[in-house]
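Lecture 7 notes: from sequence to structure.
We start with the chain below.
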Amino acid sequence: MSDLYARHKAVLPDWLALYYKDPLEITHGEGRHVWGDDGRKYLDFFGGILTTMTAHALPEVTKAVTEQAGRILHSSTLYLNRPMVELAERIAQLSGIPDARVFFTTSGTEANDTALLLATTYRRSNQILAMRNSYHGRSFSAVGITGNRGWSPTSLSPLQTLYVHGGVRTRGPFARLSDADFIAACVADLKDLLGHTRSPAALIAEPIQGVGGFTSPPDGLYAAFREVLDEHGILWIADEVQTGWGRTGDNFWGWQAHGHSGPPDILTFAKGIGNGMSIGGVVARADIMNCLDANSISTFGGTQITMAAGLANLSYLLEHDLQGNARRVGGLLIERLRAVAAQLPVVREVRGRGLMIGIELVRPGTDEAHPDAAAAVLEAARAEGLLIGKGGGHNTSVLRIAPPLTLTVSEAEEGAAILERALESVH
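Predicted structure tokens for the same chain:
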């Protein structure tokens, strides 16, 4: 055990998970690579849990942060804040939500917490519809709507949560149906559920479930849900903490794959926009955002230094068409991994969109989750210089691959070759 690991265990909670039998300290990074305290260079295919969105040590972001730090770091939301207004203007325009207002927080958890506050206040209801296998953060209210047992340490909640089918396409009672029949069955389930309860405040859903193992429904499910929700006045909250900013390649926001019934009423974001700086936020129609009848601020939400980073990062993303790069390079990577998986019974499915890819592992010859194999692949990939993540529903047996959106074709090939060898080693 390293000295730092021993110190970590002595002062930090037991439930603060660390990857690897020999935990890794990352000391610095550049581009799509990081270096560990062991002196080794690693290709980063997880980006600090989808947070280093563009690149490590991106010069444009580093310059913006350094220059802002030389002026002022923070003043709180009690004062006018030019970088916060400028970033809010850009996000409001990009969100697709009409007459949008933006509120900045410090994390995705806090963003979802705020969205729940707005929805329950606006609708005068504490009932929330959520998706099975979902994850929305670690606050008391966010845990209360999380549909993933591995990340839900308590059943106590200020909310009454009702879970809906549809977040996982290839498991569950509707898995064998066609896409159209799957959507119809989930809509019928939603209608039936609404017939047995008081009217909920909102449905919250990740367009692609992150912690749940990068699972998703067929395109159009949430649009079909939206038609039912609108009949009851129920709001739709799109949790874009992991799917936003073009990561899926096909769309800038995950909700746009379900957009034929219009944009969500509330959208939450975080992670990638700050490229490692702590930014989260909520976008909502003005009537929803302004429904609170008491004072509220965010001491650190929208602070100048994080807003400077967000502005520089967003500008870089748009100017260099990183959404297009995610579509092109991500498409090549998914096809390469599917070709590998076709030869390996331990791989049940390679799924995803753009640079948001999941590899689900099972015990060969069964549909049973195989968390030991996932842990072994994680270790084997690290041994060859590749960092990946893991997640999943009933058990943690999905490898999560989400590199920075500047990933090159050669880096994608290098990572895929390492993954192939790592998967073969457990097979």
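Points to note: Residues 43 and 400 are 14 Å apart (CA to CA). The mean pLDDT is 96.
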